Amino acid sequence: MKRYLFEFVDKLKSKNKFNVDWSEIGGIIDNTLEEVSKRGINFNFNRGSVKYFIRADLELVIYKVQNNECVSVLSSVLCLNDEIENRELFLKLREIKKFLNAEMYRPILEIMFNKGCKGQLCVDVVLMFNILILQAEFNLSDKEVIDFIEDSDFFIWFLEYPAKVLSSSKIESFRNKIVNCDIVEVLWLTHQEYLNESGYPLMDEAAVDASFLDTNQGTFGKPRGNDAKTRRSRDGTFMTKNKEHHFGFKIHQIMDLKYQLIRSFEVTTANVHDSQIVFDLAVKVLYADKGYIGVPFNSYKGYMLRHSNKACVNARRMQRNRRISIKRAPVERPFAFLKAHGQNFTKLTTTPRNKVKILFILILYNTYQLITLKNQKEDKNNDNSVKKETNTNKIMENLANFDTNLTSKNIRYWCAVINNRSMDKTTCINHAFSIKEKKN
User: Fold this and answer.
1) How far apart are CA 360 and CA 326, in angstroms?
2) DSSP letter for each residue of 304-353
3) In this model, does residue 89 exceed pLDDT 70?
4) Cα–Cα distance for residue pair 312/19, rounded to 1 Å
């Protein structure tokens, strides 16, 4: 472990990322190892997550030393055996950072500071992008996220050690610039290209749905729109659904049913009916609920039917509705994700600003889904390897039972043949019988 840590320190030296007394860092590592031996702490250092956790904490220690803060030991090593909140937070941020790939948005975000969109590039645009992702993940206001950056070591690590702490006004100005330059669609298309390059293209089946984004309606009789004087009454509108009253906005989205990734979205006021939003996606089947009857889909109309004067829903059509309902059930997951992250209620008063907010929460949702798809793929590969090994063991037992005179060398040969898939199990067993008859 000591050699590994000092090798990592040498890599940081070569990058010239920090300006510190490296002998002091070596002393901190030695003190940490002594403390570990005193306390008798045992952990599996060969695990990738443990190494990653220690490396991140070592970078944070160097960052603190650079800022003249007093540090004696690596705190992460002393708490690796405990399921503490900081470790869970780090593991979550590590996965997000790994799959987010925020650097690919840099060329688009820097467009906001050209001659067409006036302004001076005084902050790192990728840093601001990551801050908005943190806001979406933890449902933080501009002031709260600045406080967390100042207090949380892992927030600083996620942002790659910013040179200076930003103010909340910078975040608000950056968000407003995204709205004014109208680059939301370009950011979303870049995100979709990243999904395609990751091996998850748009498939043949998709589902569409909508959900309300509620806000405070404010005092009755107050002016709205451009005449509004308060933050409570700007673009939001009223809507009643299933005898429930809503005020605010509405989120429309399309999900790829195979990978359960969001492929398109739109934000409107609450009184816009679902059938008024048309998505142009190249899919063969698009599943929808009864609110989308009459929408001119460019694919097979897989919407549910309802009672009307023209078509009465009989038993056959009810069965069709039930099948479609089961098929389109995953499209509700992103709305549950928004609710779990506290993003189903907004304090923003205009539709464009809410669209920016939903953009980042949906990018975060797709990032989590990429993590899930990767874990499912690894679990499937592990299950296949275990199943293959189990089948090999069973075949070895069967071959051993056929003839006790068969040598272990022959058994290993036939198992190797099966593993290479050049001979199936039945052929191998029949061949074993033929060997037995020849010997007899």
Assistant:
1) 28
2) PP---SS----HHHHHHHHHHHHHTGGGGHHHHHHHHTT-SB----SHHH
3) yes
4) 76
Q: How far is CA 272 from CA 250, 269, 331, 393, 417, in A?
A: 8, 6, 20, 62, 64
Phi, psi of 293 (to 5 degrees): -65, 130
Q: How confident is the model at residue 385 (pLDDT cuts 50, 70, 90)?
A: low
Of the chain, the end-to-end C-alpha distance in Å amounts to 60
CB-based burial, 20-57: b 16+ in 10 Å, e otherwise: beeeebeebbeebeeebeeeeeeeeeeeeebeebbbbb
Beta strand 244-256 with 261-269 is antiparallel
381-383-388 Cα angle (round to 5): 95
Examine the domain organization and report whether 189 and 335 are in the same domain. Answer: yes
How does pLDDT run across 262-309, given as a tens digit for each residue?
999 999 998 888 878 877 777 888 888 887 777 777 777 777 777 654
Q: Are residues 62 and 108 in the same domain?
A: no
**218/318 same-domain check:** yes
Any idea which residue has 């939003």 for tokens? 277
**Rg, the chain, Cα only:** 29
Angle at 256 between CA 200 and CA 260, to 5 degrees: 80
Alpha-carbon distance of 132 to 120, in angstroms, equals 20
The verdict on 24 and 127 lying in the same domain is no
Rounded to 5 degrees, φ, ψ at 416 are -65, -40
Q: What's at 95, amino acid-wise?
A: E
Q: Which domain holds residue 114?
A: 99-181
Q: Count other Cβ atoms within 10 Å, centred on residue 104.
A: 14
Res 149: pLDDT: 84
Alpha-carbon gap, residue 61 to 351, rounded angstroms: 43
Residues 385 and 327 in one domain: no
What is the tally of helices (H) and strands (E) in the chain?
16, 6
pLDDT digits (tens, 9 = 90+) for 321-338: 888 888 888 999 999 999
The model's pLDDT over 200-228, given as tens digits with 9 standing for 90+, comes to: 998 888 888 899 998 887 666 666 656 66
